[in-house]
Amino acid sequence: MLFYIVDDDEATRSMLTEMIEDEELGEIVGEAENGALLDEDYATLKRTNILLIDLLMPVRDGIETIRHIKPSFPGKIIMISQVEAKELVGRAYSHGAEYYITKPINMFEVIAVIKRVTERIYLEQTLQNIHQSVSNVFEPQPTEYQKDKSLEHQFMLSGQYHLSKLGIVGENGYQDLLDILHYLLTDSTRKTTEYDFPHLKDIFLAVCRKKQGVSSEPDLKREIKAAEQRVRRAIYQSLNHLSALGLTDFANPIFEHYAPKFFDFTLVRKRMAEIKNGQTTPSSNIRINTKKFIQVLYFETKYVTFEKSR
């Protein structure tokens, strides 16, 4: 990550630089003591990922500077100030600041906020890469078959991305969930809607029937039961993963995006409290909604692959 610091207090700039470099959060590419100086170093600012800027400064204050640069500045803005007046802070947010650090500078707060912003940037970059890959499918004009196969590939990549953010990669149910996604896309795309989603038993039956070595009825029943258990354990692991993220940082972008979509948030809060208290609860005692999880996973993956490529 590349950082630019704008603050009229040299000591503050020095402390922020030391924290960022000591924690290996990134590189400081520029400093300024007021916002007007950014006009002279705009080339450096434009390649900056994160701008840390003081709210109150001489010549050109933080709000005026943000208003001036935001239309063409692609990075994230972290506001720094002792001022806690809601009106001023609100104006800064309305002009493009997204995060806030209070003075006097606290090392733990600074590191936590910067890590949160960095995670957000990586998340957006990954989604952008997926969207770009999808858009490239249509250049030059491919055959309909090539379109279908390319989009199918991007759909599965998007599914893998979501599962990684959900903390499921490497779990036993990971491949089962990918097989389910593939089935829902290739066999049910035109009839799978939010209001007419296949029954779980039909999904597992269809997926298990396709597996090699599953031919007899007893084998099929055993495989269906085993697959259901693997998926349930994987979802339970995802619940633990997201709950741990939320416990560490309630504003973590992965936690904010995935936890309320994939789980009942009452369940997430309960699991967070259990983790905090060092309690371990068997997955069999947790009320996991497997169908909701699979349904959300499918439509989230479908949206990233198809809707955002239009």
Walk me through this protein's architecture.
The structure is a single chain. The protein is α/β, with parallel strands linked by helices and 310 residues long. The chain folds into 2 domains: 2-124, Rossmann fold, CATH 3.40.50.2300; 142-309, no CATH class. 59% of the residues lie in helices and 8% in strands. The protein contains 12 helices and 5 strands. It has helices spanning 10-22, 42-46, 62-69, 86-95, 107-136, 144-165, 174-188, 200-209, 217-248, 253-262, 265-276, 290-305; strands at 2-6, 27-32, 50-54, 76-81, 99-102. Strands 2-1-3-4-5 form a 5-stranded parallel beta sheet, covered by helices on one side. α4 links the parallel β4 and β5. α3 (62-69) packs parallel to α4, α7 (174-188) packs across α8 and α9 (217-248) packs across α11 (265-276). The protein is elongated. The mean pLDDT is 82.
Largest sheet: 5 strands, parallel
Rg from alpha-carbon coordinates: 24 Å
Helical amount among residues, as a percent range? 55-70%
User: Which residue ranges are poorly predicted, with pLDDT under 50 across at least 5 consecutive positions?
Assistant: none
Write the layout of secondary structure elements.
Elements: E1 2-6, H1 10-22, E2 27-32, H2 42-46, E3 50-54, H3 62-69, E4 76-81, H4 86-95, E5 99-102, H5 107-136, H6 144-165, H7 174-188, H8 200-209, H9 217-248, H10 253-262, H11 265-276, H12 290-305
Parallel strand pairs: 1-2, 1-3, 3-4, 4-5
The gist of it:
By secondary structure, this protein is α/β, with parallel strands linked by helices. The chain is 59% helix and 8% strand.
